[in-house]
Amino acid sequence: MAPRKTPFHLPKTLVLDLDETLIHSTSRPLPARAGLFGLGRQKGAQHTVEVYLGGRSSLYHVYKRPYVDFFLRKVSGWYTLVVFTASMQEYADPVIDWLDGGRGILGRRLFRESCTQLPNGAYTKDLSVVEQDLARVCLIDNSPISYSVNEMNGIPIEGWTHDPSDEALLDLLPVLDSLRFTSDVRRVLGIRGYS
Fold it and tell me: How far apart are CA 28 and CA 138, in angstroms?
């Protein structure tokens, strides 16, 4: 007879925002200065996505935040990963496919229609649509409004647009490593001052 699973042993879910958290995209390519985005260190750090909406085509130049590939590889061994973005699916799906790189680690995706729009136009993300047990889910997002519904589950990260020396994703690894061993992520995030 197999031992009974306790909540400690259940896999936790790490929800990731997309724009300005994992990537930055723009309709105009950024100047290719030497070392911009650490392109020498980060293979395949720039990508182009064509989006068709309402019969119109738009081209986006997408840039990976430094260390995003290493970060995703590491945390995918610790958590079930979910991308939850306020972006439209037509834009976000090809970007997430590019980030996933065929590894199958970013299979679960939620888009703008899963968000709640506030009167000021901002979007919030109710994590109960991802996981009913909020003790086992946390969200990394550059916009605190995004996790205002589940404030105790939010892990803030500075928004990223172009700094090639950014290490914010690496800085989160020790916290994420410890969270996977707790019965309630909200208690640890409260202690560490993330909420």
Answer: 33
**Which contiguous run of DSSP H or E holds residue 49?**
strand 46-53
Hey, is 52 helix, strand or coil?
strand
pLDDT digits (tens, 9 = 90+) for 119-155: 999 999 999 999 999 999 999 999 999 999 999 999 9
pTM for the whole structure: 0.89
Q: Which residues are catalytic?
A: 17, 19
Residues ≥6 apart with Cβ < 8 Å to 83? 15, 16, 17, 18, 22, 92, 96, 106, 108, 109, 110
> What sign does the dihedral 147-156-13-112 (CA atoms) show?
positive
Fold of 10-24+68-191: Rossmann fold (3.40.50)
